[in-house]
Inverse folding.
């Protein structure tokens, strides 16, 4: 499994190498209740085929219609779009907002970028495959692209001159246990830009985590947690049902800056676990209160796949709440609307 944004770039690269013209569209600013957030990415092929999205669908339909109309009229098609990036805006007026399905007053501003050089796409895809976090910097005046190392917590930045977007594992998830549930959780987390690590010292379970994009970390769970040095962009979930493995990992995890710590088990098992952690590992009431268990949102889940959905949904709930409270998403410094090109 892979990030949806990286899937867009992979599609764009494949189309370009096949001889198609390709244009990248990036949401850079929104006002009001825009359907997609800044950083949302769309690739548009010269025959109207798209990958990704920048709205709920109506803006995409307009972009596709423009591309097809230009091609049918033998005008300047997407494959011969301006060689430098330009700006587009939707929903400036109430009438246009209604036309494109934007809530009243919503505005969506895009950077339109012809994909001419594919070398940076290939390099970015290779680096993110190695679990690197990469910042892509686009200079609007020239269309030049540079790739720079990024850090967790770094977000999209746009000042009207430079556009910087981040690709790769922005968040990290450590799973204790390599069973069937861990497989399902890992697959979903990979799609959400998590770097997924799995620790399970039981060699019998090693083949269970033979998933592309998932890294197996060797060692005992408590040692692994300490060596990982979990930060505010790390989630840790214990899924083995074995107190010898889960409890030791949780003991270390609850003392870190991890934004989410959870453990599989019934309410009765969780109560017993908290009692053990308090009595044998001297965890405080505040530290124990950070433990989510039973792990996941209550949706009546029964199968491993359903439980995985509930687990990841709760992780995302806390991730987004953290972003909202700490304003980790950097707002655009542009104080006035940018001119359209």
């Amino acid at each position: 499994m892979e990030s949806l944004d990286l899937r867009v770039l992979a599609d764009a690269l494949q189309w370009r190498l096949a001889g198609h013209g390709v244009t990248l569209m990036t949401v850079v600013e929104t006002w009001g209740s825009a359907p997609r957030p800044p950083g949302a990415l769309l690739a548009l092929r010269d025959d109207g085929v798209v990958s990704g999205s920048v709205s709920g669908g109506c803006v995409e339909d307009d972009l596709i219609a423009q591309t097809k109309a230009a091609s049918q009229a033998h005008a300047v098609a997407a494959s011969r779009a301006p060689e430098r990036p330009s700006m587009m805006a939707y929903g400036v007026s109430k009438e246009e907002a209604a036309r494109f399905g934007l809530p009243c007053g919503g505005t969506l501003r895009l950077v339109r970028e012809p994909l001419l050089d594919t070398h940076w796409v290939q390099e970015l895809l290779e680096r993110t495959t190695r679990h690197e976090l990469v910042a892509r910097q686009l200079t609007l005046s020239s269309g030049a692209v540079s790739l720079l190392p990024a850090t967790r917590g770094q977000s999209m930045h746009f000042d009207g001159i430079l556009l910087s977007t981040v690709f790769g594992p922005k968040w990290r998830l450590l799973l204790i246990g390599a069973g069937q549930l861990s497989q399902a959780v890992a697959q979903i987390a990979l799609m959400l830009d998590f770097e997924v690590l799995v620790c399970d010292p039981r060699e019998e379970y090693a083949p269970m985590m033979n998933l592309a994009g998932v890294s197996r970390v060797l060692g005992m769970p408590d040692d692994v947690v300490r060596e990982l040095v979990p930060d505010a962009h790390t989630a840790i979930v214990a899924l083995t049902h074995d107190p010898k493995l889960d409890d030791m990992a949780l003991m270390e995890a609850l003392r870190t800056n991890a934004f989410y710590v959870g453990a599989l088990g019934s309410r009765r098992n969780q109560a017993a676990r908290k009692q053990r952690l308090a009595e044998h590992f001297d965890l405080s009431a505040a530290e124990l209160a950070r433990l989510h268990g039973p792990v996941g949102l209550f949706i009546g889940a029964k199968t491993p796949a359903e439980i995985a959905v509930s687990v990841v949904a709760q992780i995302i709930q806390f991730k987004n709440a953290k972003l909202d409270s700490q304003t980790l998403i950097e707002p655009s410094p542009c104080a006035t609307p940018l001119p359209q090109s």
Observations:
- The longest helix spans residues 304-326.
- Residues 4-127 form one domain.
